[in-house]
Amino acid sequence: MQGRHSAIHIAVDDHTRATLTGWLRRQKTPVALAKRAQAILLLAAGQTFAAAARRVGLRERHVRKWALRYVTHGLEGLADKKRPGRKPVFAPEVALYVVKLACERPDVVGRSLSQWDSAELARQLVHDGVVEAISPQTVQRILASHQLKPWRHHLWLSPTVPRDATFAAQVTEIVTLYTRPLGTWEMVLCVDEKTSLQPRTRKAPTLAAQPGHPIRVEHEYTRKGALNLFAGFDTRTGTVYATTAERKRQVEFIAFLEQVDRETAPAITTMHVVLDNVRMHKGKQVQAWLAKHPRFVLHFPPVHCSWMNQVEQWFSILQRKRLQIADFADKTHLAERLMAFVAEWNEHAHPFRWSTKSVAKVMAKCENPVAKAA
């Protein structure tokens, strides 16, 4: 039976029709809004309220409601009206007190805590007489609304202000090495050591992933010593030079430099080596070796700026791709797998390019009166 028509007349122009059709096609359109848009299009096509209601899955009175809203307010009438929501149980002063506590160390109010969490904040509000009772979940919502997470922390190093001229000179030197065009006789190699790499032989075989199951690694393992990986990263080609050693002394470091010397073409007469400030890199034996190999020129980033050494980025890749699951038969097996990874990397080696934005951000750390005066 055909439903009765109404005095409400639905007119849809081309622009409105295109908008309503777009809502129906868009996957992210809320279901309720899509049904209202479909109902308006059906009514504009001559369908009765009853027929349109059956097609879109709404009650007939709801279709009439949205039709009237459309006639009165246009497309905006199809959206839900803003609702005031439930009245807050706690006064605004309670939220302000929560924020105040969260932005203070717990020992300021006499609590022996390293940091706040929602439960402890709720307990403190009751103790201070601010509220008779409040749940940790309510405190959590207040904290979330102010983007506060007082239970989290991160380590940081307070900078020396103002930066001295030495810091600025060292940063500028390293950035220039990474960004300026090199001569055909030059090479920039970032060098460092990844220490204490353990084979960790598992007491049961590591099982490959299966449908519904991730890789399974035996928890218990046998200690079989540790290795140190000496690595150098060519900043222009991405090629990695590497070797392993059981100890980390000047002797092993010099042996690595000799390996690099052998594997580098004689046409490279200046090899800029970027490495951190550990004592081993500056020892007497190293200095004596450098005196006999003048093409090696050492460059040291400022203290606490090891992130400027690009081999650290490569170490991060090594950790994720090869060392995430430590399961090797012994140190020999570990060394073989490390060298195999280096070989695979070098087959598709690529440099880490510093963008203009990154360089500007690094150089901004040198912007201070002392550095400019220098």
Automatic annotation (TrEMBL):
Span of domain Tc1-like transposase DDE: 188-333
Family matches, as InterPro entries: Homeodomain-like_sf (IPR009057), RNaseH-like_sf (IPR012337), RNaseH_sf (IPR036397), Tc1-like_DDE_dom (IPR038717), Transpos_IS630-like (IPR047655)
One Pfam family here: HTH_32
GO molecular function, one term: nucleic acid binding
Domain of life according to the entry: Bacteria
NCBIfam families: transpos_IS630 (NF033545)
Name of the protein this chain belongs to: IS630 family transposase
